[in-house]
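Standup notes
- HV: blocked on the assembly model, inputs below
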Amino acid sequence: DSGVTQTPKHLITATGQRVTLRCSPRSGDLSVYWYQQSLDQGLQFLIQYYNGEERAKGNILERFSAQQFPDLHSELNLSSLELGDSALYFCASSGLAGVGVAQYFGPGTRLLVL
Amino acid sequence: EDKVVQSPLSLVVHEGDTVTLNCSYEVTNFRSLLWYKQEKKAPTFLFMLTSSGIEKKSGRLSSILDKKELSSILNITATQTGDSAIYLCAVEPINSGGSNYKLTFGKGTLLTVNP
């Protein structure tokens, strides 16, 4: 158990809908990262927040957005869902900056868009 | 754009064998290379290798970073069926702010250990 929690575990929804994925980082970790994992693309970085502020963006679609709240939990919002958005979405967290600080992954949310 | 290539894509061995997994990378301003093990769900952290720590060992697992060749290997000795998993390699660059930054992952090596 990494200490990172994600809800829900599974989500089934229809095309065009909007969903929110939630992540609570490990106690004390200020950075939260979102990743998408699909069979063809592997693990892809989406976005990073550090202490409430967006720090880095990766391959995140405009239909997707995220935020990190004062209590450091984060939410990833996916809207106008398409079949191709079906994937595993992972949240990871890490502590303060510095060499030797790894990212720890949560259990993931499996999203299925029908 | 940062790039990570892992080989082989898939590997099947018998219990007790020793395996070597390969990872090569291209990254601007290298900071660290990480190995993760992914079984059914979340990747679990194995090792982080940096310029100041190019070799790590934990039990039957060990990893070496070759900064000159821009590569790393993960060795598993005396493999067990519980070692069956996807092994992911990732690199982390230094960003302008100096803080933790995104990881670029390889596609992984699927290791199957048969009894």
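- HV (later): unblocked. The first strand of chain A starts at residue 5 and ends at 7. Residues 31 and 97 of chain A are 9 Å apart (CA to CA).
- Next: hand off to the docking folks.
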